Amino acid sequence: MKIRIHHFFDIIRDFGSGKEITPHPHGHSYHRIAKLIDNDATIEMELLIASDAICEGCSHLVNGICDDIITHRTDFSGKEDFNNHLDVRIMEVCGLKAN
Fold it and tell me: Would you give the end-to-end CA distance of the chain in angstroms?
């Protein structure tokens, strides 16, 4: 499965907090991928800095790019740029490489 590392971390966070993971109004596959990971801890993952299996079906995924915006930061306005920045930093800190 191809996945952004921050999406994997989000799933682990939600499992740990006991959050109920249900379908989202944007239509992405977060709930489906979380269930796959929960059901098979040995599932192989390829880390990406790009749209991934979770992004599939999202109303904000346009030609493979997220067109959603964020408002909680002043240094980023586009979610795609922020997510790429976040994934690069997490992977650097963890000593991991994409693909």
Answer: 11
The Cα–Cα gap between 93 and 64 comes to: 26
Give the other-Cβ count within 10 Å of 93's Cβ.
8
Hey, what are 57's tokens? 């079906």
Query: Using CA atoms, how far apart are residues 98 and 88, in angstroms rounded to an integer?
Result: 9
Position 22 scores a pLDDT of: 95
| Conformational region of residue 95, where left means phi above 0, alpha means psi within -120 to 50, and beta covers everything else | left
Contact between residue 15 and residue 38 where contact means Cβ atoms under 8 Å apart: yes
The letter for the amino acid at 57 is G
Q: What is the mean pLDDT of residues 89-93?
A: 96
pTM: 0.92
